[in-house]
Amino acid sequence: MLAYTYVGPGRFALQEKPVPVLKDSHDALVRVTLGSICTSDLHIKHGSVPRAVPGITVGHEMVGIVEQVGKDVTAVQPGDRVTVNVETFCGECFFCKNGYVNNCEDPDGGWALGCRIDGGQAEYVRVPHANQGLNRIPEGVSDEQALFVGDILATGFWAARISEIKQDDTVLIIGAGPTGICTLLCVMLKHPRHIIVCEKSEERIRFIREHYPDVLITRPDECKEFVRKNSAHGGADVVIEVAGVDDTFRMAWECARPNAVVTVVALYEQAQVLPLPDMYGKNLTFKTGGVDGCDCEEILRLIADGRIDTTPLITHSFPLSEIEEAYRIFENHLDGVIKVAIKNS
Ligand SMILES: [Zn+2]
Ligand SMILES: [Zn+2]
Question: Which of 6, 69, 153, 345 has CA atoms 20 to 30 A from the CA of 235?
Fold first, then answer.
């Protein structure tokens, strides 16, 4: 089968590999029907994910059809259409039982697919702990509608869930990339009084204006003032920082009102400074880290009910055989790309 492979720092290549086989009674084999490329794949390519293992097939955003299951897999059966979770988790350890599946203690726990073990930019993928990692796609929901459930949409859903959003709140979301937009969609489900998105790219601003006209938009240089004017208590009640570039961490806590919740979803390439003397008395609550992707069933239900629609994010589509070109466009932000879909016939 064809598999897009992390050859070594700076280099991915489309290679011919054998179809994966089940290794454990909790494994499932999934035929990938639709996949995508994530910014984290680019982090692997650029060598900033040290735990990524050269030789592995990359890709951790995909949907497909179950081909084969181990004898202890009960949640799905061959023929089921499924979403694949970016995280593999055992469902039994302390962290899993508390919903903190990102920190699952299993050797395959956390983000393993397409990083430490073979992922889904391929024709087939072996999914460990399939009872937890696969969710059946409801009748009437297309592959395109379900594509982001296991990764960026799970991230947005988790960010909105942990941010303690109330109806009178002004919520500031910093960054309107794909994960920022997924976060926006999930924040909208909470119906806060104002949602403000801070973004500098004109293309992304246009996208938000076109698809979500009720959302307020500001640019980084005017963000603090704009938030102050559009909130009741001198700053945002909730800030969700998704951008992860220079200065956005500082912007996040500066735009927050005293006693606000600041949720940091972003993955920074550099260490950030927490200037405690400057924020003394502001009494902020910071929440940080990687998604606990354990709400996929609920997210799929919301999609089936028409309450979340991420299909506008798919701006480009390529067959797996042309994945190099898909990467070129995604990596270089060409042609107004937001997300690409990789199709297997
Ligand atoms: Zn990802
Ligand atoms: Zn676990």
Answer: 153
